[in-house]
């Protein structure tokens, strides 16, 4: 978004003839967007994560699978025994079809890994149990999460980022004033580009920390928003809150994006 924004300030120069077309659009961007909108690194990083996830999703012939067909648990379940990923398979057994999850190694050679097969209903129920475990013991989990949140906040250095943002706002306002009065603004663009680079450096770290804080906050909010136990499985909660799952012989470990981990004996 930051790129598109600056691109517009360039094009306006060579597009003097088309200036009418750009009128109104350009100032609007500059008025409304603060530095978060110029470099929304947190969003950018989430998008990158999602792109990586989508492109790595391939079937056994190496053909990329449609993302819409993906299950929320795809790619995040690992076998504690051999470290391979669990795959979702349609299992035909005694004329009955069921959906199960199986270790990839186990599917290929059960002498190498003999980890268990998990029925999808059991997996979903275990996830619901993990959420309920947190809701029912919310005091303990929340205080733990609050500690995590505090640490995450302390890691931040908001001052430098704020100073850069303030200067960016100032420059943008000036840029707006100059475009409106049709003055030359090349020097401003230079400084904005330089500043943007600095912000990018700072914000890369800031964004990673902010994202971590967001994740902890998301789980806190979720726990706080649940007045009673959950009874139904909701895949969107998997995507939103869960980082990965480990399958062991006697339990399933749900590791949440916030860093919290819940073990369900199933
Ligand atoms: Zn395995």
Give a structural overview.
This protein is an alpha+beta fold and 266 residues long. The protein has one domain. It is 58% helix and 14% strand. The strands form 2 sheets. A 4-stranded mixed β-sheet has the order 1-5-6-7. Helix 3 runs antiparallel to helix 9 and helix 9 crosses helix 10. The chain binds zinc ion (ZN). Zinc ion binds next to helix 6.
For the largest beta-sheet, the strand count, sense and barrel status come to: 4 strands, mixed
The low-confidence parts are 1-39, 63-69
Sum up the overall morphology in one term. elongated
Give the DSSP E fraction (strand runs of 2 or more residues): 5-15%
Order of helices and strands: HHHHHEEEHEHHHHHEEE
The helix/strand class is: alpha+beta
Mean pLDDT: 74
Radius of gyration: 25 Å
Structure annotation, total helices: 11
Bound molecules: zinc ion
Distance between the termini: 46 Å
- Amount of helix: 55-70%
Please give the number of β-strands: 7
Number of domains as seen in the coordinates:
1
Strand order of the largest sheet: 1-5-6-7
Structural features:
3-stranded antiparallel beta sheet; alpha+beta; 14% strand; 7 strands; binds zinc ion; 266 residues
In short:
The protein has 266 residues and is of the alpha+beta class. It has helices at residues 2-14, 19-22, 25-32, 35-38, 41-56, 104-108, 120-136, 138-154, 158-180, 186-225, 235-241, and strands at 77-79, 86-93, 96-103, 118-119, 242-247, 252-256, 261-264. The strands form two sheets. A four-stranded mixed sheet has the order 1-5-6-7. Strands 2-3-4 form a three-stranded antiparallel sheet.
